Amino acid sequence: MKHTEVKGSGSIGRAAVSKTAGCRFESCLPCKRLHICDVEEVTPALTERREMSEELEQASEDLVEKSNVNKAAARGPIGRIILFIQQVIAELRKVNKPTFNELRNYTGVVLGFVTVVMFIIFGFDFIFGQGVIWLYTAFDTTN
Description:
By secondary structure, this protein is mainly alpha-helical. Helices cover 59% and strands 0% of the residues. It contains three helices and no strands.
């Protein structure tokens, strides 16, 4: 397995804007990216994951370039609203939608949790309600 050493820091060429600047705080090293040639066995899942990552990265770069071009054209308030809606739609296209089985499982978990919390709150409400009724009847001075 071939490893490449990661050198540098995350703040090379940038002005110190952090509150920790000047306090002997060093920036973190950049993350090491897993390259497909670093893995001994290339599986179809790894290849698919890498292709998806590259597609998303390219789409993101294209969106930034398109945004910069559109930003100049959308100087008015209506143009900015239209640009915002276009960017929202572009971001929603990137969302991973759950499968039916995942959706069913997540729905079951949420409904089960809500049911448990509902019974806990009902129990506390019933106990405190009975306690208040007991207080008013035990110390009733009108008799």
